[in-house]
Design a protein that fits this description.
Elements (H helix, E strand, L loop, with lengths): L2 E7 L2 E6 L2 E3 L2 E10 L5 E6 L2 E8 L6 E8 L2 E7 L7 E2 L4 E6 L2 E10 L8 E11 L1
Parallel strand pairs: 6-8
Antiparallel strand pairs: 1-2, 3-4, 4-12, 5-6, 7-8, 9-11, 10-11, 11-12
């Protein structure tokens, strides 16, 4: 975690670690990214790699997961081309990190199937395994 500057008053400088929790889970990474195209998005978290592969096939919005090896998870996101967003309704367990469950929640926004995607993501740690 990186330090943030909280401010200075008459008391001098104060820096602290920002820790975020939701439903007892520790948020380890969160943010928003706009893809350069409509093909894929890759996350590297420690030694784990998570790939979002965007596919349009004209059917329903759905997600399929496939482990390429023990360190790579590819989530194929079919028809995630909705301007009001498509994503998880609750965090999904995608693996383990430092002996704890690793979970992911995300929302994808797009103007069309051929446009770039705006992705909000949150990686969090759950219970020990």
């Amino acid at each position: 975690m990186s330090s943030i500057f909280l401010g200075s008053g008459g008391a001098g400088n104060l820096s602290a670690q920002l820790q975020i929790r939701t439903s007892g889970k520790e948020v380890v990474a969160a943010g928003t990214v706009i893809t350069a195209d409509n093909k894929n998005l890759e996350f590297q978290l420690a030694h784990l790699r998570v790939v979002f592969a965007f596919v349009s096939d004209g059917a329903t919005t759905r997600m399929e997961g496939k482990a390429g090896d023990s360190l790579t998870l590819t989530l194929t996101l079919f028809n995630f081309d909705n301007s009001i967003g498509s994503g998880t309704t609750s965090p999904i367990e995608i693996g383990t990190l430092n002996g704890r469950k690793l979970l992911l929640a995300f929302m994808v926004y797009a103007l069309s199937d051929s446009s770039s995607k705006t992705v909000h993501y949150t990686f969090m740690l759950g219970d020990r395994v």
